Amino acid sequence: MASTPQLRREIGVFGATLMGNGSILGTGVFVSIGIAASIAGPSVIIAVAVAGVVATCNAFNSAQLAANHPVSGGTYEYGYKYLNNWLGFIAGWMFLFAKSASAATAALGFAGYFLNAFGVNNNTWLVLTALTAVVVLTIVVLSGIRRSNVTNIIIVSITLFSLVLFILAGVPQVVFSEGKNLMPFFPGDKPIASLLQATALMFVAYTGYGRIATLGEEVKEPRRTIPRAIALTMIFTCVLYISTAIVSVFAGQEVIQKLSQADVSLVAPLEVIAKVGGLGIPVIPKLIAIGAITAMLGVLLNLILGLSRVLLAMGRRRDVPKVVARLDSGQTTPYIAVVIVGVAIACLVLIGDVKTTWSFSAFNVLIYYAITNFAALHLSPEERLYPKWLGWLGLASCLFLAFWVEKQIWLVGLGLILIGLIWHSLIHRFITD
What we know:
By secondary structure, this protein is mostly helical. The chain is built from 17 helices and no strands.
């Protein structure tokens, strides 16, 4: 491992923070808040806040792990270093499945929003547009981390602009509603179960901060840069998410009912809120649509980056064929891993659809971060940057929330873990022989 070629360190605090925001501000804010509101009603505000607390615990544990072990691969590498090869492999395996599906969903989501803006509703064009996005952003990632970072900055700036306008346009409605839209605050027959399910879904909406840790090998001064970037990302995102949730709830029960009936894969929930909720500014829905389009592109870009780095790490450890770990001549891009990831996402675009369940990602991501927190508990006192109780809180929260998704989802997830362990055993036996 020591003689393995390393990626160049080219990202500072500002770039890493925007990478984190670019990974978070996508399907999370434009889709999952709408889904969570349709499940939990006005109590989605609590779900967003609780998910933010759980995610922040995870974020700080990821930060101290990445600061002490700044290599590509994220929790996959932390599992190997601080736990054992089986848990490390499971983390990488689950990450690849969950995030490849998420990337395909983001590509199809972008295509849906983009074509909807032109009044086109055709499945063939949907797939072709999504494939074009995958190809273009794969080429961007192949061009190196610096160009990827610049592209991400542009995308995040447009997304943030549309979200800030949405929140500002909703302030008068929040002020003058006098809390009338908050009742009943806990709707339905099982309000606590609904709240916990919404919290599990919203947790996934925060988890893009892990992309900063996954890119740890390319960050300047990692022990200083990574914790600061993750902290700034989480603070900013929590404020933005809670503000968006408040505006969404104060738009009224009619909007929440419409969200529960809407095809969120084709129509951005925030666009529905802006149109139906009476924010009063005709241009806001159009700006939200533009923000959704750029957000999906940002998610896709950052997922290609993150997936390729995890695949790079797995190639280095021979959990996948070693050829995957090759770097380009400038030592800036694992080009074979990037191409494989691009092809895999493109294949999922061809056979998948935009209704890929958010719950499937939720279970896989919660297991992934449970392993992150477990690894953080094994840091030495000299390596530790934050109190140990953060690790215990993060671990317990992830395992608890994982079982509030649908039963079929976590059964499929457990099946994938079993298949992965069989693969891990066979490939190492083959290499050894």
